[in-house]
Amino acid sequence: MAGTTIKEQQFSENQANWKHLRSAIAASSGFNSWQLENGIKQTESGDDLDEQVRTYLRETLETLAY
Fold this sequence. Notes:
The protein is mainly alpha-helical. About 75% of the residues lie in helices and about 0% in strands. It has three helices and no strands. The protein has helices at about 5-25, 30-35, 45-65. The chain starts with 5 loop residues before the first helix and ends with a helix.
């Protein structure tokens, strides 16, 4: 990767990791149940799915914190 900085390379790697993690979470039964419980339509759209997964993770972590 000639011509790229370390930060650019890390950002690219982080994006790739997030895409894989997002896909794994979106395929999980817990995420699917959460969507049903909250009346959220399943989506393949990247931006919508990003927001749904982030909300799911935030709510799950908040629940675990109690």
